[in-house]
Amino acid sequence: MLTYSRRGWAAVLLLAMLCACSTQRRTAVSSLKPDKDRKPAPDFTLKDADGRTVRLSDYRGKVVLLNFWATWCGPCKFEIPWFIELEQQNKDRGFAVLGIAMDEEGWKVVKPFVSELKVNYRTLMGSDVVGQLYGGVEALPTTFMIDRTGKIAAVHVGLAGKNVYESDIQTLLAAP
């Protein structure tokens, strides 16, 4: 019979987490839905940190990574640097990241967090109403990949690999 100490189990768990969350490039299996199975992304109107009104429809013609997140969410903190990098690499190719913060405390906690991480993409303050438009965002992070026509091409609930996002973005940007 095999027995492990607490330290042994902790090491096994840490190794499993590192392998699961690895950012190394691997061949990603496409998570994109076929065109015929894509449904329109619900439009919304939210405010950004400067109080400006933002609508999803303002981004029609672009590939959009729409990320529901919160400052207290561990996996969200892990993937935000990826989104910063992806925005920088692809913004001139018709790509945008929109982050929808779901913090109950509002801008008072979100603004300092976004500033500290030097987030380079548009951050909006979310609401349960917007979450419900997207089928009820029950877990954070939840990320929707939206194609240039405004349809939901993929949904990622929880932490997906950076390579999955890269693959989705490149495929959607290459589409006519």
Percent in strands: 15-25%
Total discrete domains: 1
Spell the H/E element sequence: HEEEEHEHEHEEH
Span between N and C termini?
58 Å
Give the C-level CATH assignment: Alpha Beta
| Share of helical residues | 25-40%
Number of helices: 5
| Poorly predicted sequence stretches spanning 5 or more consecutive residues | 1-28
| Helix/strand class | alpha/beta
Gross geometry: globular
Quick one: CATH superfamily? Glutaredoxin
Q: How many strands, what sense, and barrel or not for the largest sheet?
A: 6 strands, mixed
On the 0-100 scale, what is the average pLDDT?
87
- Indicate the CATH architecture: 3-Layer(aba) Sandwich
Spatial strand arrangement across the major sheet: 1-8-7-4-5-6
Number of DSSP-assigned strands: 8
- Over all CA atoms, what is the radius of gyration? 17 Å
Under CATH, the topology is which? Glutaredoxin
Please characterize this protein's 3D structure.
The protein has 176 residues and is an alpha/beta fold. The chain has five helices and eight strands; from the N terminus they run αββββαβαβαββα. The chain has helices at residues 6-20, 74-90, 107-117, 128-133, 162-174, and strands at 39-40, 45-47, 53-55, 63-69, 95-101, 122-125, 142-146, 151-157. The protein has a six-stranded mixed beta sheet. A two-stranded antiparallel sheet has the order 2-3. Strand 5, helix 3 (107-117) and strand 6 (122-125) form a beta-alpha-beta unit. The longest helix has 17 residues, at 74-90. It is globular and about 40 Å long. The model is unreliable at 1-28 (pLDDT under 50).
